[in-house]
Amino acid sequence: MLCRQLNIIHYLIDPGKPSQNGKVERSHRTDQEMFYDRNKFETLKDLERKIKSWNQEYNNLEHCGLNGKTPNEML
Q1: Is 68 left (phi over 0), alpha (psi -120 to 50) or beta?
Q2: pLDDT, tens digit, 9 for 90 and up, residues 55-69
Q3: Residues 6 or more apart in contact with residue 49 via CB below 8 angstroms
Q4: Average pLDDT in the 31-41 region?
Q5: Max Cα distance, the chain (Å)
Q6: Given this model, what pLDDT does residue 28 score?
Q7: Residues 20, 26, 28, CA angle at the centre, nearest 5°?
Q8: At CB < 8 A and 24+ separation, what contacts does 39-48 make?
Q9: Could you state, in order of their start, the residue ranges of all structural domains in the chain?
């Protein structure tokens, strides 16, 4: 398994317990509110193009949780 090779510990949350995975759930909420709720997609290619643009925009936004840095700056 790739995780083992890279010394990554993979944790599973209990079914029906999204609070155990709060950071991921919060990112899903942001995606829903800032991307999916504000866009319509004519085709799969349209979705792919718009989501690529959204990912670039999001990863270059300053985040309070990152002390004002962008996700790209944290890499």
Answers
A1: left
A2: 999 999 998 989 999
A3: none
A4: 97
A5: 42
A6: 93
A7: 110
A8: none
A9: 43-75
Alpha helices in 1-75 (DSSP H): 2-5, 22-34, 44-58, 71-74
Place of tokens 């083992």: 4
CA distance to 34, 61, 63, per residue, from 44 (Å): 19, 26, 30
Tokens found for residue 38 = 């504000």
The reported pTM is 0.70
Q: Which of the pair, 23 or 53, is modelled with greater confidence?
A: 53
**What is the structure's pLDDT at 18?**
86
